[in-house]
Structures are given as structure tokens and as C-alpha cells.
Amino acid sequence: MQVFDAVVVGAGAAGLFCAGLAGQRGLRVLLVDHAPRLAEKIRISGGGRCNFTNREAAPANFLSDNPAFCRSALARYTPQDFIKLVQSHGIAFHEKHKGQLFCDDSSEQIIQMLLKECGAGGVTRWQPCTVADVRRMPDGGFELDTSQGPVSAARVVVATGGLSIPKIGASDWGLRLAKRFEHAIVEPRAALVPLTFDAEAWAPFAALAGLSLPVEVSCGAGKARGRFLEDLLFTHRGLSGPAILQISSYRTAGQALQINLMPDLQLDEELVEAKSASRRQLGNELATRLPQRLAAAWLERAGLDAARPLPECRDADLQRLGRNVHDWQLMPSGDEGWRKAEVMRGGVDTRELSSQSLESKRVPGLYFIGEVVDVTGWLGGYNFQWAWASAAACARAMADASSPT
Ligand SMILES: Cc1cc2nc3c(=O)[nH]c(=O)nc-3n(C[C@H](O)[C@H](O)[C@H](O)COP(=O)(O)OP(=O)(O)OC[C@H]3O[C@@H](n4cnc5c(N)ncnc54)[C@H](O)[C@@H]3O)c2cc1C
Prior knowledge:
- This protein is of the alpha+beta class.
- It is 31% helix and 24% strand.
- The protein binds flavin-adenine dinucleotide.
């Protein structure tokens, strides 16, 4: 039986980072992953350029049943800390939108950086390697049955991620292990995911597929309300784009979305005022403010004649059109599911974990980090920042607990 100080299960963002840091702090670390290829989610992230953090990351950018939980880890390992690490490896990057940082070249650079950090920590890595069982021993340590033989360790870190994109290695192993050790699970749901509609209800909009525009989208009530100013994309089956991915994380089944298609102006007032100055047809006037295909679709929805000269339009009709455009209420029938979701919402309930160390309060020596935990970031580099921050908190705590006093 091989003996380690810590076994990290899952060599994705959180697992690689945690293993490297713990190794560099003197722990003998084994890192195992069942997938044939290393860190596929990092590889495909950010369109292949990995949006590895967000300069502005703060607790308000994360969803959880226990919103204060993420504070401690995020405060002790900040975006600036990760930026320094990226710079120390000579990786060039740029800011794209609202604090989002991407590699100039390729997400492969982040994977290579994490591998070098593991190398510097003398981490042993077995991949592909499955873990059939984890047993708690009477001395408080663990024994694991792996496909490369039995191992024992004082600590086990679960870094198996969320359920999205099963074809590249996502599994519910971490959630099942948590349940076996009597941890509560906040129901997992697909998040950062395109929304779908009944084919019949969507038929009038299907022809708009491919059209994108900036909107304000909101959903939910009270503290659970989300509101984003981002781009929306029409698809054949429904809606996508950053605005929809963001709001999908806030939405629960049966909740309607409110979309303002022109958040920067008050359409009814503008059209009523324009009546005295413009000789344009209503359709052409609207198309100066909205993409033409969308303008035509909205006039049809409102039952208004696009060819009618603006001065001949009734104020009441223009006001009704304005309301339709500024307050489009719609009820999704579902979402594109785990196949298309970027992340999982829900996961291991944080009320049974230490926010300082990510250690189980039920099973000392067992840790949960990254996306398997009920902390879900917005779109824009926040999920990786949680992976780095939770991994750093765990590695630090494990090393402190192992060092002689
Ligand atoms: C298409 C896409 C694009 C994304 N882009 C971004 C982005 O640009 N910025 C951002 O912040 N976030 C992005 N994300 C989210 C981000 O990738 C995840 O939140 C992050 O990778 C979570 O890190 P993790 O280590 O917890 O899980 P992962 O990185 O998913 O790693 C989990 C690892 O555990 C392994 N594993 C699973 N089950 C087992 C098992 N039973 N035994 C052994 N190993 C197992 C998996 O093979 C995997 O390697 C994106 C996600 C997707 C799907």
C-alpha cells in the first residue's frame, strides 16, 4: 500500500492547483483523475483562451444557499494573487469585458502552468485512474481503492467538479461520496445554460435565430432576483448569449423572464416625439433603433402596420409597442441541460464545511473544493476564481494541520 499525506481526486482547475500548493508546502500528494485527457474544462474554457479570473470578483458575484460562505476563501486568495502567478509564468493575457481576463494565446498555457506548479511540489499524478472506494480508518486516516492499487492518506480532497458536459469526464462521484459521509446536497441544477421554449410558443421568433443585441434581463424576486445588462442571442430553440446564461443561474422552474430589448432609451416617448419631425414609415423608424428583423417581428406581434407613416400612428399604439419592447415577459419551458451548461448550481451544502479550510465538519480530514461545492459564480472568470481560492484555502489548511507545532 502506497502512503501519502493527501490524495486529491479530480485533476481539474481546483484539484491541480490544490495539489501543487500542498506539495510545495511539504505534503506528499497524490492527484488522480479518471478522464483520459487532463483538465478538459480548462482547455475548452473561454473559447479556448480560458477566462481564468475576473479582476472584480467579489462574494456578490456568487450564488449559494449560504451566500457568506465564499467570503473567507475569496478574501485570502484574490484575483490579483492569481494574476501574479500567471505573470510569473510569462503568460500574456488581456482584459476583454467587465474585468474578464483571457490568455492571449491558449488555455493550454494555464494547464501547463498548473502542471509546473505540481512538478514544483513533487506531486504524484495518476491519470487515468478511478477510485472505487474511500474508507475512513479507525486512526482517522483514509484508505482508497484505486485502479492503480490501494493507497492510504491522512487527508482526502474531493475536487471532482460539477455535472456539466459529461462527455469530457464530469461525474457525480463527489456528490455520491458526500452523501455516503452523510453530507447534505443542495439540489444540483444546470446553470449558465441556454433557455428553451415550447416549439409552438417559439415559432414566431425562430426566424430571428442568430440575431444578437444588448438587453436588460431580470428574473426572480427579493434577494433572489437577478438582473443583467448583457447581450442576448436568439437561437432556433430559444435564447442564449451572456444575458441569458447569467439569468439562467437565478431562474427556478416556472419563473418568467422580463426582458427590456432597449434598455438605453424610452421607446414610446421617443416615437411619440418623433411623430412631429419624421415622415418615415413606422417600420423604418423602429429599425433605426432595433435590428431590422426584430423591429419587423415586434410590429407583427403588436398587430401594427410597418408601412404606416409615423405621424399617422396613434399615440396609444406607440405606447403599447413601447411596453412590449421594454417589458417582454416570457416563460421558458426548460434549458439545454448538462450537455450545454457551463456550470452546476448547487452541490455539497456549505453549512457542513469550514469556510476557512473547506474541511468537512462531519468527517475531519475530508475536504471539498471547486465546483462540487454549493458556490456558483457568474459568467466571466468567477468560477475559476472560486476554484483557485477554495483550492488555496484547502492546501494552506492541510499544510498547517500537518506541520509540527
Ligand atoms: C464550456 C465551458 C467553458 C467554461 N469557461 C469558463 C471560463 O472561461 N471561466 C470560468 O471561470 N469558468 C469557466 N467554466 C467553468 C469552469 O470550467 C469550472 O467551474 C471549473 O473548471 C471548475 O473547476 P473544478 O476543478 O471544480 O472542476 P473541473 O475543472 O471540472 O475538474 C474536475 C475534474 O474531476 C475529474 N473527475 C470527475 N469525476 C471523477 C471521478 N469519479 N474520479 C476521478 N476524477 C474525476 C474530471 O475528469 C475533471 O478533470 C467553463 C465551463 C465550461 C463547461
